[in-house]
């Protein structure tokens, strides 16, 4: 609409006035992703968001995504002002891994190398030897396993199980899950495969094992977009948040992309895979945060210094 166009123009102007760069995750609204691209920001998976943010010359970064992405940006660039359209956007993995309980779990297993998924609070990262995202988890854990290290993994049990299976590493697991990906079921994938028998299946590894087992490609959001390009199939069934369809369809305009249904056993829901916290990011709160400087992310300096150990290892890691 013309109202929306005017709002987008205002936001573009504010980005310039505030020396701000917009970084958006693939799961945010299409309009935010296209705005990030149009203004010299980036649309990326969580690893690339961290890399991009730490290299950006702007004095302010606006992170459209969920809380841990803003905190990671702040910890990597403490001199920058990090804003988020809303600080309420969390993640079920973060919620399910409170720092005090996690710390006690680590204390009980001092012989293990602590590897935490990026989808955690700064305090949880402060207990970690390594931070990883889904794009790099396999390579890091394979490396630790080769060195003979046993791993304490948190919080995503599905990603952890997948990494353990692929690498053969000894991994003690926290019991967390993503509420979006956990809803994909093998039954639902098999049902949709009957409709599109020649399709390839793309799966984010936060999904349950039975779903990963049906995948032709498994990986982070960026890795799934690359797989969409690389696979020879004309039809792709995609088991991850539906926000990814915006960039994935741009990458493969000639292919048919099909949303994997969530549910199974009769309770099949189409177009349901969408993170409620990613969905909190919108043009209105983006404009507001730029205008008023609202939604500024802060991280305690002592926590930051500890969390940086694992974050720096992640960014320096070359497989
Ligand atoms: P990616 O690292 O694949 O972008 O995933 C982040 C996330 O929150 C997935 O649900
Ligand atoms: Fe967390 Fe899942 Fe949302 Fe990603 S999609 S932010 S893992 S709840």
From TrEMBL:
Q: What is the organism of origin for this protein?
A: Larsenimonas suaedae
Q: What Gene3D superfamilies is this protein classified in? A: NadA-like
Query: Which key words tag this protein in UniProt?
Result: 4Fe-4S, Iron, Iron-sulfur, Metal-binding, Pyridine nucleotide biosynthesis, Transferase
PANTHER family (alphabetical): QUINOLINATE SYNTHASE, CHLOROPLASTIC, QUINOLINATE SYNTHETASE A
Q: What is its EC number?
A: 2.5.1.72
Functional pathway: Cofactor biosynthesis; NAD(+) biosynthesis; quinolinate from iminoaspartate: step 1/1
- Pfam families cross-referenced by the UniProt entry: NadA
Q: Which InterPro entries match?
A: NadA, NadA_sf
Q: What is this protein called?
A: Quinolinate synthase
Encoded by which gene?
Answer: nadA
Q: Name one GO molecular function term.
A: transferase activity
Lineage of the organism: Bacteria, Pseudomonadati, Pseudomonadota, Gammaproteobacteria, Oceanospirillales
Out of the domains of life, which is the source? Bacteria
Q: Give the protein's cofactors.
A: [4Fe-4S] cluster
């Amino acid at each position: 609409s013309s109202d929306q166009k005017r709002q987008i123009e205002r936001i573009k102007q504010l980005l310039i006035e505030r020396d701000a760069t917009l970084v958006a995750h693939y799961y945010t609204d299409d309009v935010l992703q296209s705005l990030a691209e149009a203004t010299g920001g980036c649309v990326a998976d969580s690893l690339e968001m961290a890399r991009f943010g730490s290299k950006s010359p702007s004095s302010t970064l606006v992170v459209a995504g969920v809380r841990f992405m803003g905190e990671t940006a702040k910890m990597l660039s403490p001199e920058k002002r990090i804003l988020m359209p809303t600080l309420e956007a969390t993640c079920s993995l973060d919620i399910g891994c409170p720092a005090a309980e996690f710390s006690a779990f680590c204390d009980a297993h001092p012989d293990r190398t602590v590897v935490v998924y990026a989808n955690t609070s700064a305090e949880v990262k402060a207990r970690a030897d390594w931070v990883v995202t889904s794009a790099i988890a396999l390579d890091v854990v394979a490396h630790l396993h080769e060195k003979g290290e046993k791993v304490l993994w948190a919080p995503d049990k599905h990603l952890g199980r997948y990494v353990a299976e692929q690498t053969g590493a000894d991994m003690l697991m926290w019991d967390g899950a993503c509420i979006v990906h956990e809803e994909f079921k093998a039954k639902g994938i098999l049902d949709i495969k009957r409709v599109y028998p020649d399709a390839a299946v793309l799966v984010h590894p936060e999904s349950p094992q039975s779903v990963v087992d049906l995948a032709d490609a498994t990986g982070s959001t960026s890795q799934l977009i690359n797989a969409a390009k690389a696979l020879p199939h004309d039809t792709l069934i995609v088991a991850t948040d539906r926000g990814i369809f915006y960039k994935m369809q741009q990458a493969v305009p000639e292919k048919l992309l099909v949303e994997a249904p969530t549910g199974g056993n009769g309770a099949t829901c189409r177009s349901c895979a969408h993170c409620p916290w990613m969905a909190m990011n919108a043009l209105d709160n983006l404009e507001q945060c730029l205008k008023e400087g609202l939604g500024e992310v802060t991280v305690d300096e002592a926590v930051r210094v500890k969390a940086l150990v694992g974050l720096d290892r992640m960014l320096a890691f070359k497989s």
